[in-house]
Amino acid sequence: MKKTNTIIIAAIGIAIALPSLWYGQNHGLLPVAASEEAKSVDSIFNLMMTVATALFLLIQGALIYMAIKFRRRKGDETDGPNIEGNVPLEIVWTAIPTIIVLVISIYSFEVYNEMGGLDPMSSHDPGPQQIAQIQNHQQQLIALDPSQADLALGLGASPENQGQKPYLNVNVNGIQYAWIFTYPETNLITGELHVPVGKEVRLNIAAGDVLHAFWLPEFRIKQDAIPGRETEIRFTPTLVGTYPIICAELCGAYHGGMKSQMIVETEADYQKWLEQQTQVADASNWDKAVASNPSNLSDSDFLAPYADEMGVNQETLSELTQLQHHHH
Amino acid sequence: MTAQTEKPQSTDKPAEAVAEQRTWKDYFTFNTDHKVIGIQYLVTSFLFYGVGGVLAGLMRTELATPDPDFVSPEVYNQMFTLHGTIMIFLWIVPAGAGFANYLVPLMIGAKDMAFPRLNAVAFWMIPIGGIFLLSSFFVGAPQAGWTSYPPLSLISGKAGEAIWILSLLLLGTSSILGGINFLVTIWKMRIPAMTIYDMPLFCWSLFATSCLILIATPVLAAALILLSFDLIVGTNFFNPGGGGDPIVYQHMFWFYSHPAVYIMILPFFGVISEVLPVHARKPIFGYRAIAYSSMAIAFIGILVWAHHMFTSGTPGWLRMFFMAMTMIIAVPTGIKVFSWCATVWGGKISLNSPMLFGLGFVSTFLIGGLTGVMVASVPFDIHVHDTYFVVAHLHYVLFGGSVLGLFAGVYHWYPKVTGRMYSETLGILHFALTFIGVHLTFMPMHELGLLGMNRRVALYDPQFQPLNIMATIGSYVLAVSILPFIINVLWSMVKGEKAGRNPWKALTLEWQTTSPPIIENFEEEPILWSGPYDYGIDAKTLEGDRTVQELLTEVQGESS
After folding, report:
1. Closest Cα in chain A, distance from residue B182 (Å)
2. Please, which residues bridge with residue A179 across strands?
3. Smallest Cα–Cα separation from A211: which of A249, A256, A253?
4. DSSP labels, B63-93
5. Is the CB of A79 less than 8 angstroms away from the CB of B144?
6. How many CB pairs under 8 A join A and B?
7. Residues of B with CB below 8 A from A326's CB?
8. B283·A102 Cβ contact <8 A
């Protein structure tokens, strides 16, 4: 009897473990991972998916089994056994989840560190409007010059890049309903982001009106753009391609249309694009390649190209413009 | 004030003969009877559930296509703002308060709540606040989401936002008054024989809920008052344009609004702990573990709020702290799920409507719990925050959890409240449609979020359309699923078989009185002759050779 029980438990264990291990690796629920950090995030998701699938199968299996096996027979008016608990069993099912969440926490901590989340330059909140005094007590720990303003909140450099300047700095400004990218070295202003593959990029994210959130699904990174506070994300793209940039924080009626794209290209292509853009900018060909400065235009002029993309008709656009004016 | 009616002095006549009956008019008055107030809460919250459900149906209709072609994006934003606000503050929270009002005094053998007038005041704030909130549709409803983050909430329609703030202050005050009342009632009004470990677990969960309400809700009130100053008189507490900090609002808001999730789910954890033992004919497995885990959830629940802000203005160390706290809360929640399973294991299950909803609750809430651990992990949450993955998670917790638990409770106590049995066929049909609808609506949303669909959008990328159509069909199934319920409730109230005092042979005190209970609840102080979950001792023969059923009949005979 004891032996058959052991065999049954082992069989159930295998019947749960095998599909869980398989599904954890083959769920196919995530888009392509375009950086090393994205792959780390996927590996933690895969682990959590494996554990979740196992618990899912265990509990749902038990519920279905119970609903079939432990039905009250017709005419049986007696109660089930008077079992009020089992302390060793309760200790087991308190300890197992504790260990699971402990492992997931430690692993998450590691991955978050790998992503640059614990870079001292970005893991403290300098507060609104870059008030330098707040950081005074930190000065014994790291040499900090708040006037340099390279202190922001968000995802900093990965441990191997810490203390180094990123290859490329781009300032990102979120406004209703567009992302504006400024390349500070060339003063280039664009509506889409171009970055070279294999080089570390730092995005300095700001918001011009309300909260936005800069999300790159293929890179598994997201950081809110907060008016009055600078935030940053650093990452190194490893896969050439075109990726969506999505605003994830509700920012108004056309929040769903606040999209752009990031083009990761080879160093040569990137340089070529940079050259072209500077020439275009010189020729003041504002309409085509370079995003316009919104402050020079009326709302409706500024929104027109985006409205096309969103499939918004002229009527709702004028409503939107009116709505905007109410608030100014 | 019929609740204040003197107890009949003459005890020689049967109590039923002289007992005053409630008429339908009582339910439209400022009545202080906790049972009337409980029903007022439940019926009112069901009406608002209808409104929130219609909004959800309209939103899903809009989302059947990627273009904003059914309603304008502004209207869409108004709809999801009110959908969220209504479902939280006018459906699940007051429905939980309704159950608590009706059941707590009965379960502890009291005649009423500790503060009956305060109780009625708390209830009447709900319809007033709710109608006030809905009136915002006439002036341009709020459209900054139920979170109402500034600066967007300060610039997207002043009148609607002001109404949102004021009605939430009303509803929050109602919740605080209810919390005080439950806490005092549970603590002070139990019959003397009932220690805290003889209380039904529903009372434990309400005790934990009330503690949370009292700690967290005042902070929401503070946030809303400051927000209203920013909105109406132009102060700059949260407005970055004048040096304010929008992140402070987020902290204050979530200090309430994460505990609010537990305020919404804990009462229904309690309901499940009542329903499963009765219909499985087995004692609850690990009474103290379940009771303490409610308190642990309430306590840890106060310290996890910033996990809603992992991508916001939250520094790395804070993200790590809140990740750890959020992970820990999975442990007491896990204890409950395992204990419920062990309660049913080996029992003699009746697969009736309350039991189906009860098991459906465990099954569906489990999924919400598992994704909850996932989103607690900061690196993963950074990817899925503000996406449909979170929409799926929260609906699995609040629909799969709270609402399925709520229906389990409605069917379980329907005979007690109305004195009549409901139709089992319609109840099972209701369960089947709801269960299919929940999964069809919310399961695809996990994948949508992981693939890159952000939430709170009226327009989306066409690649996401197939999964969205699935969700929309699911929402229509959910809409249809409520029809057998409504028919069942109304038809059975008139035509249902008489239920008697205790159709389930349950052991908690509310089943010892008449169905529906008389105005003063019990003819005389009830006798605590058994623990709340002492099932299975009938075989052992209690007090000689009498069965529990015989004993129950005797108790009834004595009291009438």
Report:
1. 27
2. A174
3. A249
4. TTSSSS-SS-HHHHHHHHHHHHHIIIIIIIH
5. no
6. 321
7. 157
8. no
Tokens standing for residue B540? 């052992």
Map residue A169 onto helix, strand or coil.
strand
Supply the Cα-derived Rg of chain B in whole angstroms.
24
Contact present, A289 and A280 (Cβ < 8 Å): yes
Put simply, the answer to whether B313 touches A213 (Cβ < 8 Å) is no
Spatial contact of B215 and B156, defined as CB atoms under 8 Å apart: no
User: Rounded CA gap, B359 and B341, in Å?
Assistant: 9
- Which chain A residues in 265-294 lie under 8 Å from chain B, judged by CB atoms? none
Residue partners of B427: CB distance under 8 A and separation at least 6:
B352, B353, B356, B411, B484, B485, B488
**CB within 8 Å: A97 and B331:** yes
CA of A278 to nearest chain B CA: how many angstroms apart?
32
Residue of chain B whose Cα is closest to the Cα of A42: B380
Distance CA(A86)–CA(B472), nearest Å, equals 45
- Total residue length of chain A: 328
Short-list B492, B487, B477, CA closest to B443? B477
In the DSSP assignment, the letter for residue B150 is T
Instruction: Say what the ipTM of the complex is.
Output: 0.90
Chain B residues lying within 8 Å of A209, measured CB to CB? 151, 155
Q: How far is A137 from chain B (nearest CA, A)?
A: 16
Which of B247, B346, B350 is closest, CB to CB, to A81?
A: B346
**Closest approach of B84 to chain A, Cα-based (Å):** 14
Rounded CA-CA distance A61/A322 in Å is 56
Which helix (DSSP H) or strand (DSSP E) does residue B363 occupy? helix B353-376
Closest C-alpha among A60, A219, A212, A222 to residue B385: A222
Q: pLDDT 10s per residue in chain A (328 long)?
A: 578 889 999 999 999 999 999 999 999 999 999 999 999 999 999 999 999 999 999 999 999 999 999 999 888 888 889 889 999 999 999 999 999 999 999 999 999 999 988 888 777 776 665 433 334 444 333 333 333 445 678 888 888 888 888 999 999 999 999 999 999 988 899 999 999 999 999 999 999 999 999 999 999 999 999 998 889 999 999 999 999 999 999 999 999 999 999 999 999 999 999 998 887 665 554 444 444 444 445 555 555 555 554 544 555 455 545 544 444 4
Interchain CB contact of B404 with A (< 8 Å): no
Task: Identify whether the C-beta of residue B77 lies closer than 8 Å to the C-beta of residue B120.
Answer: no
Q: How many residues are present in chain B?
A: 560
Query: What are A173's strand-pairing partners?
Result: A180, A206
For the full predicted model, state whether its pTM sits above 0.80: yes
Q: How far is A167 from chain B (nearest CA, A)?
A: 23
| Residue B3: both structure tokens together | 């609740």
Burial of A148 (0-12, 13-18, 19+ CB in 10 A): exposed
- Chain B residues near residue A153 by CB distance under 8 angstroms: 313-315
